[in-house]
Structure formats: structure tokens, C-alpha cells
Amino acid sequence: MCPDSPAASPSPRIGRVGLVAKRGLQEASGHLLDIASWLDARGVGVVFERETAALAGTDRQPQPDRDSLPSIVDMILVLGGDGTLLAMADRIAATGTGIPILGVNFGSLGFLTEITLPELYPSLEAALAGRARIDRRLMLRAATARAGEPFQESVALNDVVITKGALSRIIALSIWVDDDFVTDVRADGLIIASATGSTAYNLAANGPIMHPAVDALLLTPIAPHTLTNRPVVIPGGSRVRVQPAIDHTSDEVYLTFDGQTGFRLEAGDVVTVHQAERPLRLVRASTRTYFQILRQKLRWGER
Fold first, then answer.
1. Which of 164, 160, 227, 233 is nearest to 200 (CA)?
2. Which residue in the list 4, 34, 65, 82 is annotated as catalytic?
3. What's the CA gap between 28 and 53, in Å, rounded?
4. Is 65 exposed, middle or buried (0-12, 13-18, 19+ CB in 10 A)?
């Protein structure tokens, strides 16, 4: 999934921008009103998400909830951290709008919210003018079948994770890629990650880092019982099927999406994960590369 070329693929005009801040982020309140004034002066509509409007102390209407916001704006600006951006990215995918998202970090530099406060207005101006660097990030669609019937579908940017409960035993998972049986693995769980998600839970589980432009998926066992069960990189167009062995009512096995949402699996459930129909369009900072972010976040080269 290669980054867009602004010259080759101009963005549609952005007429309305949705504003979303991390819940309870008081430091963002003044910035939100300044951003709204800046956009107003340029003839761009501003839509505050409901909780963000309360944080900013504005009664400007409309004030949709986070689920509805992607359907009524042309771009979303997130103030917060990677968790806030992930939650909105999943909502954009759920609506199928494909609108771009721009993340501004209020803490240490994020892997996704890589734009800093001093870069906010230059980045926003570039996005409005169609000059911004926009990455197309592969997203994951997970479908769960229960008793042979469709049960639930979700979309994730980083990863889909099957994991045991805190007090459960090691779980057994049968894994297929397309029609090929891969293995039965006994572990604390399994991470199915995109290249973007390779620096999230996958990294903590000793999985490899993949550049986000790589069209691939990662299968990473979590604390496998057999040390020869290693992470596997597979083509991005693959379809992964996983069936956990749940033999007792006391077994707790959970399916989670980007660490944001999830539910408990039952005996016989089958989880299928594949590339989502639309990638996420992520506005990038113009001042640093992916490897500069890695060096800073992971402190490479420091003694």
C-alpha cells in the first residue's frame, strides 16, 4: 500500500472538518476554539463531535457522536494520541466514507499521531490545499461465525487479537491461510496485524516491524508454548481463519479490535480476517520520515 502522490492523486475539496479530542484532554480545549476560528476564516465548515464540543465549551451545532461524525464531514482532525486516532479510524472504515484523518499528538510523538502542535496549521493548510502527504494504510476486516451463521463484523487498523482471559489456561488455536492449514498453536493468544500494527501489540510480542507501505499481514503467537512457533509474514490479500478450542464453560477467550472493542468467543466460533475494502487515508507530517519516527519512538542509537 504505497503512499499517495499528491500530484498524481489530488484530494477532493474539503468543505467540512470534524474535530475530535481525546476524552478529558483539557489541554486541547483552547486549541479547539482556535482551530475552529482558523477554519471559519478560510470558509471551511467546522463540526465538533459531541464530547469535544463540551470540552471546548461551545454550543455550535450540529454535535454528532463519534459514530456519526465521519458521515457528515470531509476530513477528521484528531487531537490526542494513537488510541484516539485508532478509534476514529475504525469508525471511518465502518461508515465506508474513506475520508482522510489528521492526527495531532499531545504527548510524546505517536506512530499514527505524528504531527506535533507546531506543525498543526501548516499540516492543516496543506491538507486543505491538496498538497498533504497521504498514506493509504491497509485495514483489517474480521468476521465471526457462530453456530455456522454470521455473528459479528468489525474493522481494525492495527490488529485483530484472540487472547485468553486473565485466569484462563493456555488456549489452542487452529490457523488456516486461505485454504491451507498452517498449524495448531498453543499460546496465550494470536495477533493478526497489519503493517501499521506491527509497531503496536505485535512489537511487544516480539513480532517484526514492517514498513506501513508493505502489503502484508502478520501472524504473531503470544507467548507460545512451543518456542518454534514464530511470527509469520503473509501476503496482504490473504484470508486468515482461526478456530480456538474452547472446551469448558470456564475457558475465557476474547476477540479484540485495535484494543478498543471486543467480545468473548464461544465454543465453535470461527474468526476470519482479511484486508478491508478501503484503506485508511492518513495525513502525514511533511517534516519527518517513517524511519525518523522509529528512531525517536524506539530510541535507536541511544546509549
1. 160
2. 82
3. 11
4. exposed
Give me the domain span that covers residue 88: 16-138+279-298
Structural domain includes residue 30: yes
CATH number at residue 99: 3.40.50.10330
Q: Tell me the three state secondary structure of residue 292.
A: helix
**Within a 10 A sphere around the Cβ of 121, how many other Cβ atoms?**
12
Query: Does position 281 have pLDDT exceeding 90, yes or no?
Result: yes
Q: Which tens digits make up the pLDDT trace of 87-141? A: 999 999 999 999 999 999 987 778 899 899 999 999 999 999 999 999 999 999 9
Q: Residues 264, 285: one domain?
A: no
258 is catalytic: no
Amino acid identity at 83? G
> Does 103 share its domain with 82?
yes
Q: How far is CA 220 from CA 6, 92, 259, 277, in A?
A: 34, 26, 16, 23
Are 191 and 222 in contact by the 8 Å Cβ rule? The answer is: yes
Q: What span, in angstroms and rounded, lies between the C-alpha atoms of 109 and 81?
A: 8
Query: CB under 8 Å to 284, separation ≥6 — which residues?
Result: 3, 114, 132, 133, 134, 135
CA distance 158 to 220: 13
Q: Answer whether 236's CB lies under 8 Å from 212's CB.
A: no
**Residue 271 sits in the same domain as residue 151:** yes
